[in-house]
Design goal:
The complex is a heterodimer. By secondary structure, chain A is an alpha/beta fold. Chain A has three domains: about 130 residues; about 55 residues, Alpha-Beta Plaits (2-Layer Sandwich); about 260 residues, no CATH class. Chain A contains 21 helices and 15 strands. Chain A has a four-stranded parallel sheet with strand order 10-9-12-13, with helices on both faces. In chain A, strands 11-15-14 form a three-stranded parallel sheet, with no helix packed on it. In chain A, strands 1-8 form a two-stranded antiparallel ribbon. The C terminus of chain A is likely disordered. Chain B has a four-stranded mixed sheet with strand order 2-1-3-4. Chain B starts with 6 loop residues before the first strand and ends with a helix. The chains are: A alpha/beta, B alpha+beta. The interface between A and B is medium-sized, with 29 and 23 residues.
Chain lengths: ~500, ~90
């Protein structure tokens, strides 16, 4: 997975902030066609071939932010402003969440192992001895791989004492756990939406930014601008994504125009209780293992690839589902907007019907910038009574869901837990055989992203930073900066 | 030889800086040379105003080192600038 701190992230956030600024100023339609030129000025030293290609990419990023399906709706003769006026009229259909920009795709060649100059042609030759296909030959004092025979097992890379073997992957294909990302005949990226589970790994790993999320930001900012009653449902992972306390983040949301803020951890309490109850039932009836059901990418994985797990997953709604019900009960007129790190949540939101919009943390950050809201400068909002669900903020971390369920389960020490911390290709293969060989656990906690939701595709900061800023880990924080960043936490 | 003054370092944690890479600078305990770290007083501060200047040549994140504001800050650049400031 691509390191979060990179030029592409910076560019994307800049584009998002500029678009939203213009939107709130009411000048988006007039300004939008000039934005690519404003963002990529003539003097810029281009990271792509030239500034003109970079401008074209900014155009596509703006279209993705508008929620436009670039694969099907791209019309180069159409101005951005006419796209914008369409979006102002009518919200775009949500599915599919991802779309590809074929002109951004670098058509990476098939993945391969290559022996570099660093090869010393040593005497022991562990590469030769360990290659199962005999595809290593020596000439001019160095080893070479016969690509035609290589099965890309990586053994030679593992055993080379000089680290001379490099693996050159196709990042998007490698990242996709379910082989939904493939190259078409021209070598450009294509996503098979019948297989795609909307986990967002491919979008997070492409260094060219050729796979993008069709944002859900426009429907939300339209609600805010129309001053409708909007409830922000903030995911447990939000703490640590911004330079301030949870109370300050809540205040920042109110300052941005949301009418009320509700912690999804509140819904997580209901999910935990429901799952604890269900676990008890299943255990007493000897029905075998149960999996959690809060990760929407996992839900998609079951629906599309592992149908036998359908009866294994808990029947509980996700925390978002319960929180939305709660919010609608409190005020039937309110529009609910889930704010989280997840792309697949949008798929779930469409199914639920109690959710009116979904934002990622990254989009919220752009919204804060556009509105000039500084989280750190905010007063502390009243979080209300949080005692009963405070521990559920740990839903954002791997292991957190299971521990919340167990703490609501009478005989917790009798339960064996198996946390699935991230679903990659290998984990997917492991899960496939659960059909034949049952995993030895009572409760399986499944999180598609390694580390949990704090490592989701829509986060602002990397998990190491988020963990430092989260409440439970005060000790890990740099003392002085911590004091000044998060203010007095007590 | 008199005791050297410690270098005052202020990392901007205004939203714009934080979002555009400033958050990574807060991991300074991990990426700075311990000797350099020992010679600095590092703190996170409210918006330094760098992002509000329409004519600014550089972009967030901003860091103030000994009274001078530097933009486009990265971990590498901060290492270099602080090493220079501490050993000066």
């Amino acid at each position: 997975m691509l390191e979060l701190n990179n030029q592409y992230t910076v560019m994307k956030r800049q584009v998002h902030a500029e678009v939203l600024k213009a939107f709130f100023a009411g000048t988006l339609e007039q300004e939008v066609d000039a934005l690519p030129i404003k963002i990529i000025p003539k003097a810029r030293i281009a990271n792509r071939c030239c500034i003109y290609k970079e401008r074209a990419m900014v155009r596509y990023r703006i279209m993705a932010l508008m929620g436009i399906n670039i694969e099907t709706e791209d019309d180069e003769l159409k101005s951005l402003s006419s796209y914008v006026s369409e979006v102002m009229e009518k919200d775009k259909h949500v599915a599919p969440i991802l779309t590809t920009i074929s002109t951004a795709c670098s058509s990476c060649p098939p993945d391969r192992y290559l022996i570099s100059e660093a090869c010393r042609g040593c005497f022991a030759r562990p590469c030769l001895a360990n290659c199962p296909k005999d595809c290593i030959t020596f000439s001019n004092g160095q080893a070479h791989i016969d690509d035609a025979r290589c099965i890309r097992c990586g053994k030679c890379k593992e055993v080379c004492p000089f680290h001379a073997v490099v693996h050159i992957p196709v990042p998007c294909e490698e990242a996709c756990p379910v082989n939904a990302v493939k190259k078409n005949e021209e070598g450009f990226v294509e996503i098979d939406y019948q297989k795609c589970i909307s986990c967002g790994r491919c979008a997070m790993s492409c260094p060219f930014g050729a796979i993008v999320e069709r944002s859900g930001v426009m429907p939300v900012v339209k609600m805010l601008k129309a001053e409708e009653h909007v409830t922000a449902l903030i995911a447990p992972a939000i703490e640590g994504q911004f330079p301030g306390t949870l109370a300050q983040i809540k205040q920042a949301l109110l300052a941005t125009g949301f009418s009320s803020v509700m912690e999804v951890s509140q819904g997580a309490e209901t999910t935990s209780l429901h799952e604890a109850h269900e676990l008890n039932e299943r255990k007493s009836e000897g029905k075998g293992y149960m999996t959690t059901s809060c990760c929407p990418a996992y839900m998609e994985l079951v629906d599309k690839h592992l149908p036998f797990l359908g009866e294994r997953r808990s029947s509980a709604l996700s925390p978002m589902g319960y929180a939305a019900e709660e919010a609608k009960k409190a005020n039937p007129q309110t529009k609910t907007v889930f704010i989280g790190p997840c792309l697949a949540k949008r798929v779930e939101a469409v199914k639920l019907k109690t959710i009116d919009g979904v934002l990622t943390f990254s989009e919220l950050a752009s919204l804060f910038i556009a509105k000039g809201v500084d989280v750190r400068e905010m007063e502390k909002a009243d979080l209300g009574k949080t005692d009963s669900f405070e521990d559920c903020r740990e839903f954002a971390l791997s292991g957190g869901v299971a521990s919340c369920v167990l703490s609501r389960y009478a005989k917790a020490d009798e339960v064996s837990v198996l946390p699935i911390n991230g679903i990659d290709k290998k984990m997917f293969r492991t899960m496939k055989i659960w059909d034949k060989r049952q995993p030895e656990a009572d409760l399986i906690e499944v999180m598609c992203c390694e580390g949990g939701c704090i490592n989701g595709p829509g986060v602002v900061v990397k998990p190491s930073v988020a963990l430092k800023l989260r409440g439970g880990n005060k000790a890990a924080a740099p003392v002085k900066a911590m004091r000044s960043i998060v203010g007095a936490r007590e | 030889m008199g005791k050297k003054e410690r270098v005052s370092v202020k990392i901007c944690v205004g939203t714009a800086c934080f979002v555009q890479g400033g958050a990574d600078l807060l991991l300074y305990n991990e990426f700075l040379d311990p000797v350099v770290l020992g010679g600095c007083d590092i703190e996170g501060v409210s918006c330094l105003g760098g992002c509000k200047d329409p004519n600014a040549k550089d972009r967030p994140p901003y860091v103030q080192i000994g009274g001078v504001i530097h933009g486009d800050m990265t971990q590498e650049k901060l290492c270099k600038l602080l090493a220079e400031a501490v050993h000066a």
